[in-house]
Nucleolar protein 56-like
Amino acid sequence: MALYLLFESASGYTLFHAYGLDEIGQNTEAIRNSVLDLTRFGKVVKLVAFHPFSSALDALNQCSAISEGLMTDALRNFLEINLLKPKEGKKAKFSLGVAEPKVGSQEVTKIPCQSNEFVLELLHGVRLHFDRFIKDLKPSDLEKAQLGLSTIIVQDLGHLLQQ
């Protein structure tokens, strides 16, 4: 069964295919050992799709929804466009690895999901090497997105404290 990974960052949603697991082994310890070496880890995951957020406010709303286990229309559309739909009456031949177990509930996504230590280690590797997977994304772009998101969070907290 194919394994895809959903990675959320301040810059957008990203979908990866974990296709080379036989190269390094299919256990958590093997993944943990390969994560630090981009050459090795790059043989394990492949970028499938990237959906950038339209603004820092959009990023905040999307990331907040994920942390609350909510499926936004933007995320649902992104997944529906980029994951193969199973044929009528058939089970999917893939699962989606997610960091947030609530998002992974089948009632929410209608997609077979998993969130476990193995998936979390794969996502750790993606986070570590993220800027190298997205060709047009410079490390400074990611830092700007994170800074923009944190600025909005601080502003929102300031408004809440004033009330």
